[in-house]
Amino acid sequence: MASILSSPESFDDGQWDPFEDDIPSQQQTQQADQLGFCQLSDWDEGKTYNEHPPTCLHYSMEWKLRINNREVSKETEQDLVLAPASYWRLFLKSKLEEVVLHKIRTKKRDMKSEDTKIVMTVTQQRSEPPLTKSFDEINIDWSVVETQLITWGYLFLAGKKLRVTISFNYNYVEAGQPSATSKNINQRGSTTQRMLTELNTELDIDEGLTGRPAIWKAVYETMRCPGSPCDKGPHCWCDPVGKKHYPLRPRHLKSFIRFVEQGGLLESHSDVPDYIRQQLYAEEQHSLAAKRQKNAGTSVANLPPIHITNTMPTSSCQSCQRKLSSDFEMPPRNSSLSIPGFRDKAVEEYCAWHQSKFENSEHRVEYQKAQDVMKENAMTL
Questions:
Q1: 0.70 cut: is pTM over it?
Q2: Among residues 284, 279, 260, which one has the least CA distance to residue 271?
């Protein structure tokens, strides 16, 4: 098979229940007194999760696509609360797949994944150096990332920010002579066409061995748009409740195939299993939220400018002001406060005094945060 097997084809790495990541990813490392990630079963995309004190870890993620050691795409995801493994499965994997396929179609060249580098950092914390991990292709062990972020949870509670930077490293694959004529391109064929050809070969073999049509063919037929073709594509899921259409990508269809292979029944759109429904719902919410955010930024940019005109008071107003100023005297300006001893020590003692006035430990933590900020920035009382 073509080299595409090591790039987009590797995105489909088995059937995934969106809720299965809630159990092993955190329980392996998280203790009772540590913050963890928001569980997918409890996650609400419209919620901001800005509780005080926080109920789950927050982190940002910057991911890049590099081809032949050159950065060609970069995005930043802010204020994430889902476990990195869940975010990868639910959103990031499909985004990366779309970018890779776009580059293949644009350049008319296959590419393969070489490795993935992940750097985890804590902002403004010199005592915790960045932690770097490398993985073959895109076979990422997300438990390593999640364990480290949970370990840094106490720093997050102290006001630090957690960041994950991911670099997906690909290389173009040279195929035959470096000719760019249409004839050679047509003879070579597109990656998608080669994949379909090999899929048809597998179908013929399967039908010859079993005497019945291959499972994937029945799945593709079942999940075709039940009405006239919609703008979601040739394959979509029509929700029996509300009749809304949800687009189906190849990874969704492969999940259906594995579902049937494991004994599941899929004879109509009403038979779609709950875990795939939840995945489609979550992807739709994420897409709508991104569109709302984009539209909100555009609407603010299009607002007309506000002009403020200042006018000088008239002579009568000036006389009123003079009368008012004679009736009221400004209080004397306080002299600067002089505190003996070392200034950083004074900050610590002042913070300790405030903490002694509170029984609630959460309030004492807030004063500790203020003390850390003042000391890091050389601020004084």
A1: no
A2: 260
Give pairs for 364-371: CB < 8 Å, separation 24+.
Answer: 365/53, 365/157, 365/158, 368/158, 369/158, 369/159, 371/347
The residue among 277 and 21 whose pLDDT is bigger is: 277
Ramachandran class of 139: left when φ > 0, alpha when ψ lies in -120 to 50, beta otherwise: beta
Q: What is the C-alpha to C-alpha distance for residues 120 and 57, in angstroms, rounded to an integer?
A: 14
- Identify the H or E element spanning 74: strand 70-80
Q: How does DSSP assign 286-303, residue by residue?
A: HHHHHHHHHHHHHHHHTS
How far apart (Å, rounded) are the C-alpha atoms in residues 7 and 103? 12
User: pLDDT by residue (tens digit) across 117-159?
Assistant: 999 999 888 888 999 999 999 999 999 999 999 999 999 999 9
For residues 103-142, one letter each, b for 16 or more C-beta atoms within 10 angstroms of the residue's C-beta and e for the rest, the string is bbeeeebbbbbbebebebbbeeeeeeeebeeeeebbebeb
C-alpha to C-alpha distance for 8 and 104, rounded to whole angstroms: 10
* Cis omega (within 30 of 0) for bond into 53: yes
Strand partners, 233: 230
- The alpha carbon of residue 150 and the mean position of all alpha carbons in its chain are separated, in whole angstroms, by 17
- Distance separating alpha carbons of residues 343 and 137, to the nearest angstrom: 53
66-90 as b/e, with b when 16 or more CB fall inside 10 Å?
bbeeeeebeeeeeebbbbbbbbbbb
- Report CA torsion sign: 245, 250, 252, 254: positive
70 pairs with which residues across the strands?
67
252 burial (CB, 10 Å; 0-12 / 13-18 / 19+) is: buried
pLDDT score recorded for residue 287: 81
By C-alpha distance, which of 228, 261, 230 is closest to 248? Answer: 230
